[in-house]
Amino acid sequence: MWLKAVILAAGEGVRLQPLTFTRPKHLLPVAGKPILQHLIENLKKAGINEVLIVVRYKAEMIKSFFGNGEKLGVKISYVEQGSEKGTGDAVRAAEPHVEEDFLLLYGDLLVEAEAVKAAVETHLREKPAATMTVVPVENPQHYGVVALQGNRVTRIVEKPKPEEAPTNLANAGIYVFSTAIFEKIRETKRSERGEIEITDSLSLMINEGKTVLAVTAPKESWIDIGRPWDLLEANEWMLKRLKPRLKGQIENGATVIGPVYVEENARIRAGAYVEGPAFIGAGSDVGPNCFIRPYTSLGRNVRIGNACEIKNSIIMDGTHVGHLSYVGDSVIGEKCNLGAGTVIANLRFDGKTVKMRVKGEVVDTGRRKLGVVFGDHVETGVNASFMPGVKIGNNCWIGANALIYRDVPPDTVLLLKQEFEERKLKS
Question: What pTM was computed for the model?
Fold first, then answer.
């Protein structure tokens, strides 16, 4: 007996705006592929051949991209979550399509196949009411934290204060459930946010004395993606696992070292220096004398002009970076056009960690180096500069010589006003 996987991919991903204004978060690319594609490919490696994806926000984009799953070697079907919100409601939408125990995963995470296999095999062997994967973390206050007695879950505490966390074991968003979970979802009351939370349904099982087991996975086997800078972590996570391959054209005089994946019809011109791990997408063009530094992913048909430096960044399909530009520790959306000499700062003078505004609140990213997040179709004039932690909404124009130190909302034109003093030279 092997299980069907249910993947929750209905959420909008508000914390990942402006990137999610134009796509569901599950289609955001890391290491050249959408997050959800990486997840499904690893499920296949774990022996999962049938996947049900719960969709809602921009559902047609997900359906169009994955289709019936044939290109990934799995069978994919879809169900739409209704107007109700919450992970519990999303799981309930899958009920008519599930007849036996099933694997459940959040769609905004990456996990190695071995961690999935460990959870499934434990569940099939021990036959508990539910099994969940937990991972040790350094900051349990940001997660649902699981208390254990042996390997049995005794309670789940959502985002506790650091001094109140019962353990450092975080809920990884990977479960194996019996169909009894659906009855518990119907019994679950709405949270303060007005949502049915699957962890509350799981807590009902625990409080009734049902056996819920935890399987501990290594921290390095899992990563979740909830905020823009998490994409950089996920990109690094995947690039470390990417097998190098050079399919494109490497001109004489170009240097490629370390694990680098260059897709078909990509071109690395003479004088360029590409240091892996890195990914260069199909049809992309890296200009002369560029420096592509580790943990950089260039999407399809990206153009990098002469003498640019790109470091630890994701640059999405169709974007052009003009000559003499610097992009560091940043996420740049699709079809952007960065004018010549665009510079993105990624380090504070005081050496403190960079902060970024997320859902209206200023959040400490915990990163000493972090550049910018651009939505799609952003254009910058020559010599535009951006301070660390800035977000630029989609469809923005940033004028020449502007210094941007705050977020810019979508559909904005921002121009620098100058005053000139004109005098005649004395003869």
Answer: 0.94
